[in-house]
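ugh ok fine here u go
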Amino acid sequence: MIETVEVCPVCDCKEQKLYLTCRDHTVSGEEFKVKQCTDCGFRFTSPRPAQAAIGKYYQSENYVSHSGTSKGLINKLYHTVRRKTLKDKLSLINQLHPRGTLLDVGCGTGDFLKACRDRGWAAKGIEADPVARQKAQENSGVEVNEDLLTAFKARKFDVITLWHVLEHLHQLEESIIRLKQLLDKEGVLVVAVPNSNSLDARIYHEYWAAYDVPRHLYHFDQRSMALLLEKHGLKIAGIKPMKFDAFYISLLSTKYKYGQTRYVESVKNGLYSNIWAARNGKNYSSITYIVSQ
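structure:
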């Protein structure tokens, strides 16, 4: 089942052009097109598997956020860095809001949920993948629901987090509307996504691992994120860089481009990307957006 994005989710323009063609290096080996809106410049994967058909593109031990695998040096590095970033994420939400209720959307296998629960947050989760959802419930010991659009009808949350999740959601606008409904009036929405205007995206182009087609349906930059949020009455209150991502994405990108990981090149380009971003509008490989109403 394949679907085509006819209207830009950000500005509703119907005109689009081909930006590039990427291969799914993780699961299928298939090629997918990334289109660009001719008005606002937003990039998105189209045509793409429909929501009912996307599941098979996550079914791989190489998809580390769902499988939890530690096989291979890159995955070992991923887990080492994740332990550090878990502490950073907890530190960030504790700075943004006193401990209260938290919803983690796309919680994967539940590591962040567990960390939040252990630090006094009343945490809940959303995870569409049934295998990952089961692992998350076992790992965290908290309630994890399947569908953002139907779960927690009568609840409000002080903090809602989406760590590299928004780019996966088929029903993008409906999801933004639902997130706003679930967010307490004084609450904070935390959204982390790859940045397709980063230097490492420009270096690796169609081999840039953060395109991750077809799992990544949308390819945000700062302008498109601001426009999308403003469309739904939300605003960006701040941004935070995710500096480790430049190195991790560069490691995967060299593997995709050359058939083997080039460690020296990856470290060099990850470093260059972060230095360039600091001088060019904070266009880091991935960005965490702090969002308020």
